[in-house]
Amino acid sequence: MATTKDGLLYYGSLLLVSFICIYLLRSLPKKLSSYGRPTARHLPSPPGLPIIGHLHHLLLGSSSFPKKLHSLATHYGPLLQLQMGAATCVLVSNANFAKEILKTQELNFVYRPEFGSPEYNIYHGSDFILAPYGTYWRFLKKLCMTRLLSNSTLNQFVHIREQERAKLLEYLIKVSKEREFCDLGAPLMSMMNNVICRMAMSTRPWENADEAEKIKKLIEELAVVGGKLSAGDILGHLGKFDLLGYGKKLKNALEKFDRLVEDIMKKHEENGSDRKGSDLMDIVMETCNDPSAEVKLSRKDIKAFFLDMFMAGTETSSIAVKWAMGELINHPLVFKKLRQEISSVVGPGRLIEESDVQNLPYLQAIVKETLRLHPPSVTLLRQSNEDCQIDGFYLKSKSRIILNLYSIMRDPNSWNNPDEFIPDRFMGNTNLNSNKELMEMKGQNFDYLPFGSGRRVCPGASLALANAHATVGALVQCFDWKVKGGEMVDMREASGFAATLAMASPFVCYPVTQFNPFEES
Ligand code: HEM
């Protein structure tokens, strides 16, 4: 007679066999479809902890976020899977894997991940930087490349950049006369904000100082709150509850920006017929009245687009000049050589202009070397659209990719003395990285990607470079620099998570005027 024990054994075995059959039936199609292909391996990972995953590698210790990514890449390899709380990311830290993502499999990785909870973003769905690769994104990218940020539009606005640079120099001459010191970061940020405000929306700081200043404050606030909210992604679904209140702060700041830009748009509409392409907003609004335009932009789309321009362009551009000046002050021989180059090309009595830059290769090399060592955007963020393999490793669709520009541009396999500031490596007359001598900024060399690469490459690169070259040149031509509290500028990066590479300490210095371009000779 069968006992209860036998019965349990019988039904237990039946259950086990059923589970095995269900598992085989579900996995068989996948197995058959991958039959004959080499089996993909899973990505390596550093040691992790339950729940927080690898967060402790990024949160503990006083070094900066890019240095922590760099240390992970150096210890565990150039392709890693990181679990940051609830968010899974793939960290890519060498030129070969970057090329695979940005070129070989570009169409699969042309998307960007969305961080933070969309419910607090009043521009959700209109955002250009995060827009999926499709008609809307293509329309705006083409508008940027062929009209808004094209070389001919940049030439049309050269006087704005000259006037804003002159204002910066006048301020520094005054500081120098009064033997005061200044934090160079603040006037550089105002200058770049004014340039973009005036090019984009004709805000005229001398008539309405308020508008440009309000936009600058909002952009600074949005960068801080947006960064904190994105970091909240590590909470997964809990992020929706806005436990720390950053969601509400973000919404608040966005609504203020929206009201400000709505007023500016109304002024543009009121003076519509007189304006005819006087600024970027006119050009964007013209497309709304063009019946042949492929996409009809809404007011929300236009405002979201300008917010992206400010967020992507202001801090990155001013920070680049700040890092360059830090390196120049800390390398007096490079500083001297640059001043000599400017003097021999520009002459003694006039201020450097943007049109001089093509004849100033050493100035160009200094800006290139600064962007290599201190890339204002430390990472490129991408997302895979479909399952794929990289170097035999399996990546599932919607994998978030962090391209670690900081490590790629300091990789000792690509760069000699990678942590040293050596502008000569870009001059083509040394044997230091001689294959880099013709290196362009266009993202075709995957060892050097300060502006990204491919379809998603930065559309503001020419504007950023025009500004960086002429500003660094003018600051070297007009002033000697003394550092408050010591001989050297503190070149450490700020700790904590941030999208742009900030300096750890304020850049406080004394300008000493050497050449005053506004003085009658
Ligand atoms: C030194 C200054 C700048 C640096 C280092 C920089 C760097 C970058 C990088 C690395 C990307 C991502 C590219 C990729 O994913 O392949 C990017 C995208 C972008 N940048 Fe810049 N940028 C700078 C200035 C500007 C300026 C001045 C503007 C416009 C006023 C701008 C507008 C944008 C926009 C709209 C995108 C998104 C493009 C897209 O998704 O298609 N940037 N930038």
Automatic annotation (TrEMBL):
Binding site for heme: C458
Gene3D superfamilies, per database record: Cytochrome P450
Known cofactor(s): heme
Keywords of the record: Heme, Iron, Membrane, Metal-binding, Monooxygenase, Oxidoreductase, Transmembrane, Transmembrane helix
Molecular function terms, GO-annotated: heme binding; iron ion binding; oxidoreductase activity, acting on paired donors, with incorporation or reduction of molecular oxygen, NAD(P)H as one donor, and incorporation of one atom of oxygen
Superkingdom classification of source: Eukaryota
Compartment(s) of residence: Membrane
TM region positions: 7-25
Topology class, membrane: Single-pass membrane protein
A Gene Ontology term for the protein's cellular component: membrane
PANTHER family the record matches: FLAVONOID 3'-MONOOXYGENASE-RELATED, P450, PUTATIVE-RELATED
Family, as annotated: Belongs to the cytochrome P450 family.
Listed name of the protein: 3,9-dihydroxypterocarpan 6A-monooxygenase-like
Organism field: Herrania umbratica
Gene responsible for this protein: LOC110415407
